[in-house]
Request: fold
Amino acid sequence: MKTTKINNRKLSLSHVKYTLIYIILIPLINWSFTWAPMVQLPWVPDWAFNPVTIVTGLVLVARDFSQREIGHEVLIAMGLALFLTFVTSGGALAVASGVAFLISELIDYALFTLTSYKLSTRVLLSSSLAAPVDTVAFLYGASFIRDAQLTIPNISMSIAGKMFGAIIIWALIKNRLEKK
Reply:
């Protein structure tokens, strides 16, 4: 298996699996915002949302694990993923996604670099602070390429999806990695 060096460490593909998932998820989820149909909940009038908003939390979780794999080089991975978004979905969506990720990454950087909280706490705090801000930033940008993206249902479902993923990862880390 081919290896490369990051931070003077030899890495194989198996050592960057979450980074690869992160790089693939970003353009895939961004691209799906260009075509996914809005879903109307029959029991809640005027509550239509883009179903992709539910899975956006996977990106934040993948980023947290990618950051553990490659450190601050996660910014290179994000740049590559945004380039792929540009190629697959256009510049406007790449900029919207880039701004949202920049906001989220700055919050992550502050929590992961400047605090000494346990990893589980940092994951939960990072998602709690970043999810609302980066969701609004992304959906605002996405609304320029497709109507009805910056809506309360989309914001709510996106934040709920992100926090659901964060809570699962928080529990896994707390119960498996931090019990050692």
Summary: DSSP finds six helices and four strands in the chain.
